[in-house]
Amino acid sequence: MNMTAFLTIPSIAVLLDFIRGPLVWLSFIIFGLGLIVQTFRLLNLTQKKETRRLAPGKEFVPQATLSKRECFFRRLAFLKITIIGQNACMVMFSFLFHVCLVITPIFLLGHNVLLDTSFGFSFISFSEKTSDTLTLIVLMSGLVFLLRRLLLPRVRILTTVYDFILLFVAIAPFLTGYLAHHHIFNYNIMIILHILSGELMLVMIPFSKFFHMVFFFISRFMIISEHSMGAPKRSWQF
Amino acid sequence: MGKTPEINTDSIKSILKQNRKQIKLGLAMCAHCSLCAESCFLFVSKDNDPEYMPSYKFINSIGRLYKKKGKVSKQALEEMRDLVFEKCVLCTRCYCPFGIDIPSLITLGRSVCRTHGLFREYDR
Amino acid sequence: MIKAKPKPVEEILNYIAPYQDILIVGCGGCVSVCLAGGQKEVTILQTELELARDKTKSTGQFSGYTVERQCNEQYLGSLDDMVETADCVLSMACGAGVQLLAEKYPEKPVFPAVNTIAIGIDLDIGLYEERCRACGECVLAYTAGVCPVTRCAKGLFNGPCGGTNGEKCEISADINCAWHEIYTRLKAQDRLADILKIQPPMQWQNQVKRTIVQKGYEQRYYQESI
Ligand code: HEM
Ligand code: SF4
Ligand code: SF4
Ligand code: SF4
Ligand code: SF4
Question: N or C, where is chain C less crowded by C-beta within 10 Å?
Fold first, then answer.
């Protein structure tokens, strides 16, 4: 039996309608509520910490004023002590991966059309060519992560099967979306797989290591540590 | 060197229980990305030996104990001693992009080892 | 642990001006914990010195390395080759570490890159406070855990001076009188008798280099057993 015919079998069609309809909403609800609950639970593990204020001491010397140019070169030179200087390649791929991972689905024309038909509103959309490029960047970075995991001893020694599964879960919606859009393999099958993998990823974000999406901001911006950013005022309370 | 006493799973379990949230969070959040490696001067000075990576050290000490619910062999605990005492000086300077507090987790690994008379041997 | 602070870059530039190949050696012990001389500070210092070099159009090559502890020769082996090719060494360890390097490599100039300040406690990230001056005759037992050597401006052993100003020390209203604190804490513990005895003055030993032989190792290091 050919695939398209298979998808029109009545019971299968009902299943497909469920995946395309209620299951989408369900995933978004689990994603949203999950994020809220998990964020709350994480915040509950932190506590406020007083910072001592000292009277200005004699050691306090104001910094020499530097020209803008000098400032810029100093900053550039001191990138060496950050992760950007130490692992530039990985940071670049990771940055591209994350930015594209988040913005592509939001500003994708196809998704916005769906939003518009359901709610009568939509975000601005990238051109199809842009979205295509961004998707390819996600896929390429995913490939870099995969190769790193397979080839670099320092990553391999930490790697578990779960890491591959999660990498696949993160990549799958992009891979299937790309294949569907370009009608590679069977479109109908691909689009179903695309919807399913997107739903799976959404549902997994609050309950897997993808939750670093929130953890990152809490632990780096709210918790006092050598490496924290901004003006954190809290500490862990374990 | 003194002989390791028999493994007392209950004493290990009580440390795991007291610090369950911290261990669980650290293990759950670690992306196994290895970006913490260079922040450990021991990793750098031992020719980038992956066993000196901060994440490797906490995952394979307190992390392993947690996953096995404290049921480990004597030999495994002795190996953990090497990780948390010989391969880490607890300078507390590891960097993780997510902000996982690795030194605290390694400290927990040390606590468990100490309950079994395992610590750093300076005269080895 | 020991607390230290990096020296001003200008001062370090003066030391190293005559030299070409400069090796910066960090320490993974105390100075790493207090963010003064670990691997990261080695890189920071190297970058500062390189920037200064480029600004003044002078020359100079810098390299950096961090050892586990600079105060034990056992951990210095890996430095031999690096020191061999360097013209001078900048040590980021505490004074003890700098001196051991200088002893081990007497033919090379070894300069300190941090100011060793105190034996202290960690109050917060990057905030430390002195608690002990290693006087060698610890009296905390009868002073309720308040060190009169470190905390009393005059290092008095038998009660406060005449200038005590209630809770405050006469030298500054920002400083608590150590003896007031000793008194209150002992009183609360019902141990005031502890400070009634006259304590003999400290037999200051700072003038000579003190050697510490850990308990149990006497046989091994003293010629005559004690
Ligand atoms: C939006 C906020 C997010 C931030 C700030 C963030 C940050 C990070 C950071 C710092 C890493 C560390 C390792 C690296 O640089 O690759 C990482 C890794 C990773 N992230 Fe995110 N992330 C976010 C969202 C997400 C989301 C929503 C997903 C997937 C659904 C995701 C998937 C991954 C994966 C799979 C890795 C591991 C890469 C590897 O295998 O080494 N991230 N992220
Ligand atoms: S940098 Fe953090 S997330 Fe990455 S392996 Fe190390 S501990 Fe895990
Ligand atoms: S605390 Fe241990 S693992 Fe972390 S940087 Fe220091 S020696 Fe390395
Ligand atoms: S050399 Fe000084 S700073 Fe380094 S470990 Fe020894 S005492 Fe601490
Ligand atoms: S009396 Fe003070 S300076 Fe002397 S050893 Fe005790 S704490 Fe240190």
Answer: C
